[in-house]
Amino acid sequence: MKKILLGTAALAFSAGMALAQDVVRMGTEGAYPPYNFINDQGEVDGFERELGDELCSRAELTCEWVTNEWDSIIPNLVSGNYDTIIAGMSINDERDEVIDFTQDYIPPATSSYVALSEDADLTGVVAAQTSTLQSGYIAESGATLLEFATADEIVAALRNGEADAVFFDTDYLAPIVEESGGELIFVGEPVVLGRGTGMGIRESDGALKDKFDTAIASMKDDGSLNELLIKWFGEGTDTY
Amino acid sequence: MFSFCTDPSVLSTPEWFACYLTTGKLMLFYASFGTVLLLLAITAPVALAFGFAGASAARARFAPLSWLGRLYIAMVRGVPDIVFFLFFVIALDQGFEYLRHKIKCPDWTDPIRQGSDFIVCPAAKLPLSTSPQIWHEIYGFSLAVLTFSIVFGAFAANVLYGAMRAVPRAQIETAEAYGMSHRQTFWRILIPQMWVYALPGLSNLWMVLVKATPLLFLLGVEDIVYWARELGGAKTARFTDYPHGDWRVWFFLGLLVFYLCFTRISEIALDRIMTRLTRGQATMGGEAQRKAA
Questions:
Q1: Which of A68, B55, B81, B188 has the maximum number of C-beta atoms within 10 A of its C-beta?
Q2: A121 and A55, same structural domain?
């Protein structure tokens, strides 16, 4: 086994040397289903994995997947530890100052409140993930913002009563609400935030951005992007 | 893993767990224990070497060398660990890449800093962006070892510096009276006797180091705490064959047991080393051993 591994590593290494420019390292979080998550085999899986692999094959790039903590995902992109961020990152002005975005591959998403009961106080303590559009929205809404590093923790905070409600991406919350068997419910109206989800790319990497832009456009044109969106987010999701 | 694992939703509890505990993801969790132990096994001696060099430099008679040693100790001890782990590592990485860039691509004319981007030529990337993921992981791990060693080396240097001064002055004077040179006194009299004074401080550092390993995740190395958090989080049936609720408390309980066992083993080992080092020393412990014998 070890020898095989070493052999493939050596092979991959020498093959890599030949097409030096064409290996693109795709950075993702791996903790945000259905966008991206680590499956039972320990590999990156999800909507973005499938999308990313398809984009790479259309752009004729060899891609490699790496995971990185959400908090330091932008600093590691700009210092060159990987070449793209494909992690359900919404396009907004604050991020756009530091990195560039491709065109959106998911239409602007809705965010929703989830609580334990219909009469939950949405101006009380609301949990959201750190440095997201949602946490910014809550901070300005007048409610008390309770931040957690991962989306999983905000739901846990709601269940154990630390927060009156959580405010997060509807697509992430939907399967959780569905499977909670009535314990969790959507409260209030969904809110549309941001300018859609795109891939983050270094500002100096214009050529790579163009390649992915073209690939995303071609997937929008032939309808394969819509198929993927419906496959991972269900029938009711927004498509192009 | 097992042949009956094809549809976990119909399995009985023991079989379900047999399947769950042998999925590829859990294997990565088990492997991360190896990562942590390997980190400790490499970092401890390297940090001790840094500490020894720092302490020797600090008490050197050549003034600039002494300043250098003292500066190292004071600077690293004064900077909070988390700052070190967040910024120092990225700076170190960029420093290496900058040097390689200067050597390998002398004709490169584009600026290295473009806005917030750090751009070196492709040949100077560390590791090359074309190299397989395993090299990136080894490189990240090495940076982690280096950073841990520098930080803990500074603390160890201070402990060793104190221990060297704790060796009774009379011992040194006797050595000098026998005509030993400064170097001979240092290696033959001072060093063998200082360990017994240094060990309590060093054993504290070891314990702190054991528990500081979750800082690894800041450096992009997936350690046991990262996996416990990731695996313990609630999983819905759509994205895994093994849905479960919030199990973080169980995973962290496992880590607690691991850390406690590790602490106990360390204590036993350190006690043995202490007994060995005390033998024949002019300390209360050494005197007690002499009387008991």
A1: B55
A2: no
* CB proximity under 8 Å: B 17-76 to A: 23-25, 27-28
Q: Both A185 and A215 in a single domain?
A: no
Torsion angle of alpha carbons B154, B156, B159, B163, nearest 10°? -120
The C-alpha of B115 sits at a distance from chain A's nearest C-alpha, in angstroms, of 8
Check: pTM over 0.80? Answer yes or no.
no
> The tokens of B153 are what?
């080396």
Indicate if ipTM > 0.95.
no
Whether residue A24 contacts residue A63, with contact meaning beta carbons closer than 8 Å, is answered with yes
Place of tokens 């990562």: B35
Task: Tell me the pLDDT tens digit for each residue of A137-156.
Answer: 999 888 999 999 888 899 99
Token representation of residue B18: 């047999």
Sign for the CA dihedral angle at B40, B41, B46, B52 comes to positive
The single-letter DSSP state of residue B85 is: I
Locate the chain B residue with the closest alpha carbon to A78: B117
Distance CA B258, CA A8 (A): 34
Rg (CA), chain B: 25
CA of B229 to nearest chain A CA: how many angstroms apart? 10
